[in-house]
Write the structure tokens for this entry.
Amino acid sequence: MNLETILNGAVLFIGLGMAAYSQLSKGDRSEQITVIPQVTEQRQFERWNLKEGSIYDGDTLRVVKGSEELKIRFCGIDAPEKKQAMGIESRDYLRSLVSEGNGELLIVPIEKDRYGRTVAEVYVPDRKTSAINLNLEMVRAGYAWHYAHYSDTCPMRDQLIVAEGMAKNEGLGIWNGNPQPPWEFRSSKK
């Protein structure tokens, strides 16, 4: 392991630590919780549940809360399409991560995209006091690209850049070969 990989890992670890620091409410599970991803910024999670069978790829899913339903697009990432190399693996990896929280997801809405989807950071609780940032984890594990063209509004943009660099350096997932970004794949199919 070279020094650059170690330093990138340290930067990502610090970023993930700041993002995962949370104060879980002890009362009603439907209450919001506060996350402090950076020392100066506080944001609210919204608790949702995965709509069963709604993970079709590695960067989109549906969530429900009572009779309300949202289609979520992960902020700042783009995963391979199902018909693309690594598309099924990407989807299955996301499914495995979500299963760690028994279908409960913590959503930090960022904006709406042109298709009406909620663009968000998505977390899965892994213990009582911490959560996994799925956006970062998909990129770090090599199952999604940092989608630089659409990441300007993503609070974790800098961490996504570091995570992608680490995955590339280690040849993980999509970086174990000559990957075609999904935006190019979609464009070639038009």
